[in-house]
Structure formats: structure tokens, C-alpha cells
């Protein structure tokens, strides 16, 4: 039995993410799109506490009690715990407590962070001791973004976003996150992208089923220079997210007018991430945007992936 389980509970923290680059290719037969993306884990975290129990149960705090986060087998943390139990033939359950800080349906991988945290927490609680490679395999079965929430830092994701390679990133990047009360559904945004591409006649030239991250994005991360990264920010899902939520374009414009270097829709949105040159400017821009009625969060990246903190 591990020390953590002897203590009666395991507390794991996992980060949300921004896609500093997101290229979307064609749709595979399984419905998933080919991706080439660069994830960066940022200092906005989900906390998962796992306690011993005979059955499986979950509570969630830090979010409206409006059904937006399911408390049954549709919950990704619950699915993660059950998948680990099945894979390791562990008998017995777990009582999961999820404390959310990452916006729900915000394009920042909050649900994926919950799943990654639950995997690590149950592995420690149950003493199943899986290798990082096996944890990664289970994570990939839960969702395309879950492996990254395990690893954290800055990483290139290809395939469906689940084939990860670390990317060299120097220094610290300061972001302001403008969240929305109303979330956006990831499948809806991907479907919108397909429709927009059909309308544009892009099907004459089918989107590729394998793609790479452009070299200038990786170079910008390596220099640690926010100005270079600002020039390289790109998200193929942005047009689709703006189609659903045109106001996000105004948010990006406001952020740039207030002093951010550049802004981007994070993942499938609707969270907008504004890149700032340094922490002081980020605070300045935050104050100016508050005067405009927005309430941005100041975070930084990269930060580590899911880890046990108690
Ligand atoms: O893997 P995850 O559950 O995060 O994906 C949610 C949805 O996003 C998928 O059901 C799919 O509609 C879309 N998606 C996609 N291609 C990807 C990743 C996600 O079409 N590579």
C-alpha cells in the first residue's frame, strides 16, 4: 500500500491548457479530425481528491449546479476511475471530489484535466502503480486532450491530438483568459468547421489526414520571446467558434487595443487567450479590460501536468 492511500486520501492537481497553435485536417472515419497542435499547460487548475469507498461516487464544486457537469458515468473523471479499475482488475471503488477552476466547456480541457487527475489519484489510492506509458494509453482512450493533461508543460500533439512529443519552450508566457458564462460544445464547433469548409469549396482540395506544426511556431517557443509567439498564434477552429459566437472577435480586438500582443480563441472556445509581453503589462491590460466590463484571469505557462500534492 502506498503512503498516500495509507493516509486515507490522495489529492491531485491538473492544469488547463491553451492551444497556441491548432491546425485541423480532414475527418477520419471515426469522426475525429487529424490535428497538429501545440498545447501549453497554464496555471489554472482542477483539483481531484480520491477517497477510499466500496462504490464509485463523485461530487463537483466550483461550478453552477445547472447540470453542465454530469455526476454519473458521463463524467470524465468517473469514467477515468472506472477504466483504471477495469484495466487493473481492481475491485472496490472510490469517492471522487472534483474542485473546478477551469471554465466548463471553455476550450481549455477542464474535463480532460479532471480525467487525468482522477487516473493519477486512483492509481496512487489503489496502489495499482501503472507505468507512465500505461497511464498514457488509458488517458488517450478517455479523450484526445487527456494525455496532455497528464504530461503538462508544452507539447506537440498530432494524430487526434493524443500523440504527444515535448516541445522545447523557454521562459514564461503571460496570458489573460477571458471566459464566457455560456460554454461552446466541442463537437458542434468541429462540425461547423466542416460546414464552413464545404461552403468554401475546400473539398475540391481535401484537408490532409496528417499534418505538422509549422516550424516558426516551434522556433518562437524555443526563443521564449512572447512577441515571436504572438506572430505565430493560430487556431483553425477560430473561424468556426466565431461563427457560433461573433462577440469573441470583439473580445480579441479589445484585448489587443488594451495592450495585449495578440489574442486567440482557446481550442474550440469560447475562452479567449490574450498573450501579453510580461507580467506587469498583463496586469495593466487586465485593469483596462475590467474598465470595459470584462473580468480576465491572469495565468502563466508552461506549468507541470497532473501531480500529487497531498
Ligand atoms: O476527445 P474529446 O472527447 O475531447 O473530443 C470531443 C469531440 O471533439 C469529439 O467527439 C469530436 O467531435 C471532436 N474532435 C474531433 N477531432 C479531434 C478531437 C476532437 O473532431 N481530433
UniProtKB/TrEMBL annotation:
<dbReference type="InterPro" id="IPR013750">
    <property type="entry name" value="GHMP_kinase_C_dom"/>
</dbReference>
<comment type="pathway">
    <text>Isoprenoid biosynthesis; isopentenyl diphosphate biosynthesis via DXP pathway; isopentenyl diphosphate from 1-deoxy-D-xylulose 5-phosphate: step 3/6.</text>
</comment>
<feature type="active site">
    <location>
        <position position="17"/>
    </location>
</feature>
<feature type="binding site">
    <location>
        <begin position="103"/>
        <end position="113"/>
    </location>
    <ligand>
        <name>ATP</name>
    </ligand>
</feature>
<dbReference type="InterPro" id="IPR020568">
    <property type="entry name" value="Ribosomal_Su5_D2-typ_SF"/>
</dbReference>
<feature type="active site">
    <location>
        <position position="145"/>
    </location>
</feature>
<dbReference type="InterPro" id="IPR006204">
    <property type="entry name" value="GHMP_kinase_N_dom"/>
</dbReference>
<keyword id="KW-0547">Nucleotide-binding</keyword>
<dbReference type="GO" id="GO:0050515">
    <property type="term" value="F:4-(cytidine 5'-diphospho)-2-C-methyl-D-erythritol kinase activity"/>
</dbReference>
<protein>
    <recommendedName>
        <fullName>4-diphosphocytidyl-2-C-methyl-D-erythritol kinase</fullName>
        <ecNumber>2.7.1.148</ecNumber>
    </recommendedName>
</protein>
<dbReference type="InterPro" id="IPR004424">
    <property type="entry name" value="IspE"/>
</dbReference>
<keyword id="KW-0418">Kinase</keyword>
<keyword id="KW-0067">ATP-binding</keyword>
<comment type="function">
    <text>Catalyzes the phosphorylation of the position 2 hydroxy group of 4-diphosphocytidyl-2C-methyl-D-erythritol.</text>
</comment>
<dbReference type="Pfam" id="PF08544">
    <property type="entry name" value="GHMP_kinases_C"/>
</dbReference>
<feature type="domain" description="GHMP kinase N-terminal">
    <location>
        <begin position="75"/>
        <end position="153"/>
    </location>
</feature>
<comment type="similarity">
    <text>Belongs to the GHMP kinase family. IspE subfamily.</text>
</comment>
<keyword id="KW-0414">Isoprene biosynthesis</keyword>
<dbReference type="Pfam" id="PF00288">
    <property type="entry name" value="GHMP_kinases_N"/>
</dbReference>
<keyword id="KW-0808">Transferase</keyword>
<dbReference type="InterPro" id="IPR036554">
    <property type="entry name" value="GHMP_kinase_C_sf"/>
</dbReference>
<feature type="domain" description="GHMP kinase C-terminal">
    <location>
        <begin position="218"/>
        <end position="292"/>
    </location>
</feature>
<dbReference type="InterPro" id="IPR014721">
    <property type="entry name" value="Ribsml_uS5_D2-typ_fold_subgr"/>
</dbReference>
Amino acid at each position: 500500500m502506498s503512503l498516500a492511500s495509507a493516509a486515507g486520501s490522495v489529492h491531485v492537481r491538473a492544469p488547463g491548457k491553451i492551444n497556441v497553435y491548432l491546425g485541423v485536417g480532414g475527418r477520419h472515419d471515426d469522426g475525429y479530425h487529424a490535428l497538429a497542435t501545440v498545447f501549453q499547460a497554464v496555471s489554472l487548475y482542477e483539483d481531484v481528491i480520491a477517497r477510499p469507498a466500496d462504490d464509485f461516487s463523485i461530487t463537483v464544486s466550483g461550478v453552477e449546479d445547472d447540470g453542465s457537469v454530469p455526476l454519473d458515468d458521463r463524467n470524465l473523471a468517473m469514467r477515468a476511475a472506472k477504466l483504471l479499475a477495469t484495466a487493473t482488475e481492481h475491485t472496490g471503488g472510490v469517492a471522487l471530489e472534483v474542485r473546478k477552476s477551469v471554465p466548463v466547456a471553455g476550450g481549455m480541457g477542464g474535463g480532460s484535466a479532471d480525467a487525468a487527475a482522477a487516473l493519477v489519484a486512483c492509481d496512487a489510492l489503489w496502489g495499482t502503480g501503472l507505468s507512465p506509458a500505461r497511464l498514457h494509453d488509458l488517458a488517450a482512450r478517455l479523450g484526445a486532450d487527456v494525455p496532455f493533461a497528464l504530461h503538462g508543460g508544452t507539447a506537440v500533439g498530432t494524430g487526434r491530438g493524443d500523440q504527444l512529443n515535448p516541445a522545447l519552450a523557454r521562459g514564461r508566457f503571460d496570458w489573460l483568459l477571458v471566459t464566457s458564462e455560456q460554454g461552446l460544445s466541442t463537437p458542434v464547433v468541429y462540425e461547423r468547421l466542416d460546414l464552413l469548409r464545404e461552403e468554401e469549396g475546400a473539398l475540391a482540395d481535401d484537408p490532409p489526414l496528417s499534418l505538422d506544426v509549422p516550424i516558426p511556431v516551434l522556433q518562437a517557443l524555443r526563443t521564449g520571446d512572447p512577441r515571436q509567439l504572438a506572430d505565430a498564434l493560430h487556431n483553425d477552429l477560430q473561424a468556426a467558434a466565431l461563427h457560433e459566437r461573433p462577440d469573441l472577435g470583439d473580445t480579441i480586438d479589445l484585448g489587443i487595443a488594451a495592450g495585449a500582443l495578440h489574442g486567440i480563441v482557446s481550442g474550440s472556445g469560447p475562452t479567449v487567450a490574450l498573450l501579453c509581453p510580461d507580467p506587469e503589462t498583463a496586469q495593466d491590460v487586465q485593469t483596462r479590460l475590467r474598465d470595459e466590463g470584462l473580468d480576465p484571469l491572469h495565468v502563466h505557462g508552461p506549468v507541470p501536468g497532473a501531480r500529487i500534492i497531498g
